[in-house]
Amino acid sequence: MTAAKEQLLPVVSDVIADLKHKPGALLPILHEIQNRLGYIPPESVPLIAESLNQSRADIHGVISFYHQFRSTAPGKHTVEVCRAEACQAMGARQLEAHAKASLGVDYHGTTSDNNITLEEVYCLGNCACSPSVRIDDEIVGRVTPEKFDQLVDGLRSQTLEVH
Amino acid sequence: MSTAVTRLFIPRDTTALAMGADRLAREIAAEADKRGETVEIIRNGSRGMFWLEPLIEVETPAGRIAYGPVDSQAIDSLFDQGLLQGETSHPLCQGLTEAIPYLQKQQRLTFARAGITDPVSLDDYQQLDGFNGLKKALQMDGQAIVDEVKASGLRGRGGAAFPTGIKWQTVLDAVSPKQQKYIVCNADEGDSGTFADRMVMEADPYMLIEGMTIAGLAVGADQGYIYLRSEYPVAHQILNEAIDKAEAAGFLGDNILDSGKAFHLEVRLGAKAYICGEETSLLESLEGKRGMVRAKPPLPAIVGLFGQPTIVNNVLSLAAVPYILSKGGQAYADYGMGRSLGTLPFQLAGNIKRGGLIELAFGVTLRELLEEYGGGTFTGRPMRAVQVGGPLCAYLPESQWDTPMDYESFQAVGAALGHGGIVVFDDTVDMSAQARFSMEFCVAESCGKCTPCRIGSTRGVEVIDRIRNDEDREANMELLEDLCETMIYGSLCAMGGMTPFPVQSAVKHFPEDFNQPAQTNGAQS
Ligand SMILES: Cc1cc2nc3c(=O)[nH]c(=O)nc-3n(C[C@H](O)[C@H](O)[C@H](O)COP(=O)(O)O)c2cc1C
Ligand code: SF4
Ligand code: FES
Q: Please, are residues B449 and B457 in contact by the beta-carbon 8 Å criterion?
């Protein structure tokens, strides 16, 4: 994810070539670019626009509509805290406040060591064992502030071993 | 020490994983190895008794014995006390799984296989009635399939409760200029407190594949899409595994079971947008656009995906279809009451002792679910408010908990069943904070097309903040009511049109929370 800009665009071109034949290809293309690069570099917008025969404004409009797509590089890990009702009922508001304070960032912010980006999410489907947090592709339940700190410490020491 | 292979079941469901199932599976395998025992660990779906996750089951001649919730510390003592023989003396032992009252009292039609099978095993699926509905459908013409669905009385499980058979009839009758119709499964499951769609996809994905294929046969569609929320990485993985296997085995593809009929299926991911659960916004998103809601008419059944006739159905609606085709529409209609026929998987969530999935015929009361199944709050404090049906539906005070769970009874008290989610709050809840959140959620998730929704929700947050700060309370309460009315009557879809319902219910049933300065732990963000 620290790849230089010149190395990003060949990846973008590959993804477009692989997926542009699909009906309604734009979301699959954006997802795959973000999967591989961590974000959608603004430089990729003209390439996508050209290959799908759409305007740059169209592509940009889609990227900005969806909460998931980002135009800047995230930290090494993404931590999403669930803000929705079933998690609220089990202390999500306190957990959110704790997450922001202990990481020293607000939502969409990245820690100064570039390790963790904090995001909000509305429901991870783990509502019977809330509050819930997602760390990259792993979902964790019954997250107390103490457990949150342990999870974050785990990310800092590189080994993602939850629970 | 024994030489026989013992079969152990450890779920690969999201909640089981969120409570440590993967790590537990590794540690149990290692412990068995250390003790010289041969075990086969099957990664099943969840039974839906989430308060017991991770729930481990051991196969014995008498049936499967359950242990839960199991954590690392318990592994040693479980082995010592005869886990592999299904000994019942350990404190975590729950006895025979099927005899646990929470499960035993349910009426599982859609979730009949959930947690019993390996979700991606085609053999497991077929041993328990899998693909029987499809085989019957392949012998029927489209109209006969649609008639069977009509006879079941099935109403859409995504929230709007529209009769599924009538929707299918419209698509069957519609003429496609391009000779192309589509089946779209709405797997966006955005409502907090719901996880039944997720459980179908993670515990029994072939049932959804079968239901969609039958829908395709019914209306003459050979392409299906599952629009899945990206917040469900586990379901994504399992669905893709299942689709690959079903294709390889001839249950999907150009020539389904040598019938000469085709059906193709692809999973498409959403990108964190609640509004994309609304069916026309979903179709826009599938077409690669912003998820802006379309005006209806035309109905998606007539002008749907890429302008072609399209069935859009919720996961649970489609998942009910294999049963209906296999056992007959009447068998399904024998469950339920009034115009709410069949079963609904209720989902108990939030501050509840025994959260999980409870599939029952319509008509059970909310209180039975909260007390008999749920066992009260997780925190042990008194229950105060219950939000049923998702973020666009009302909060119910205790005086309404005896309402039977069916579409009409809930409507009669100004509430809705929605997708069957039940979120419980204890007496520490601040209902003005909850009302504020409803408006805040609408600000975050509105597609932006209509002013009452886009701007009204922003004003709603501000007005509730003023009320919470004790500024000109009476005038602002009136303003809030006006705002709610404007949103209800001036919005194109239920996002703006129903956001006021939880707000108004909070004001009506919990007025005391709007009459005093807000607690400091409120919803300010
Ligand atoms: C704001 C909004 C969000 C919705 N979210 C969902 C959803 O997540 N899942 C779903 O199946 N239906 C959702 N719906 C309902 C769909 O628009 C549509 O009624 C449903 O997919 C039809 O399928 P059914 O007839 O099988 O219920 C939502 C509706 C609105 C207005
Ligand atoms: S009510 Fe809201 S979400 Fe629905 S169409 Fe209008 S602006 Fe979009
Ligand atoms: S509300 Fe947080 S996981 Fe569903």
A: no
Q: Just give the CATH number of B431-514.
A: 1.20.1440.230
Is B122-329 assigned to CATH 3.40.50.11540? yes
Residue B190 to residue A123, Cβ atoms within 8 A: yes
Cβ atoms of B497 and B452 closer than 8 Å: no
Q: What is the pLDDT along chain B (525 residues), one digit of tens a residue?
A: 445 799 999 999 999 999 999 999 999 999 999 999 999 999 999 999 999 999 999 999 999 999 999 999 999 999 999 999 999 999 999 999 999 999 999 999 999 999 999 999 999 999 999 999 999 999 999 999 999 999 999 999 999 899 999 999 999 999 988 899 999 999 999 999 999 999 999 999 999 999 999 999 999 999 999 999 999 999 999 999 999 999 999 999 999 999 999 999 999 999 999 999 999 999 999 999 999 999 999 999 999 999 999 999 999 999 999 999 999 999 999 998 888 899 999 999 999 999 999 999 999 999 999 999 999 999 999 999 999 999 999 999 999 999 999 989 999 998 899 999 999 999 999 999 999 999 999 999 999 999 999 999 999 999 999 999 999 999 999 999 999 999 999 999 999 999 999 999 999 999 999 987 655 444 443
CA of B273 from ligand 1 middle (Å) equals 13
Ligand 1 atom at minimal distance to the Cα of residue B493:
31
- Rounded to whole angstroms, what are the CA distances from B511 to B11, B397, B430, B503, B516? 44, 11, 11, 11, 10
Across the interface, which of B198, B288, B351 has its CB nearest the CB of A25?
B288
**How many other β-carbons are positioned within 10 Å of the β-carbon of residue B266?**
14
Query: Can you give the residue range of the structural domain that contains A22?
Result: 3-65
Tell me, yes or no, whether A150 and A121 share the same domain: yes
Query: What is the count of residue pairs from A and B with beta carbons less than 8 Å apart?
Result: 166
To the question of pTM greater than 0.95 for the whole model, the response is: yes
Q: How many CB atoms lie within 10 A of CB B260?
A: 9
Query: Best substitution site from B274, B278, B447 to test ligand 2's pocket, by max atoms within 8 Å of Cβ?
Result: B447
